[in-house]
Please model this.
Amino acid sequence: MFGIYDRSGRLGTGEVLGRLLKTWNQQETNKYCGHCGRHVLALRPATPRLRNLLWTVLTLGAWSVVWLIQSRRRPGWRCAQCGRQVV
Ligand SMILES: [Zn+2]
Model:
């Protein structure tokens, strides 16, 4: 499809975009999960910083209040295996 650049081992455009979007929308770290009894990959949704920044500029700073409230409400880390909250 893309001539010599198309190799079977490469990721498709959709896959790359999906991974990028995933990295943008969530943060990852290693945490101990009491339920799984071991260290697991923990995930939490990231705040849409770029969108918030844009809105803050557009509303001449008024959106920063919403941004603050949003970041306080943010859910904590969750175990990628069982989905339970981890500390
Ligand atoms: Zn777990």
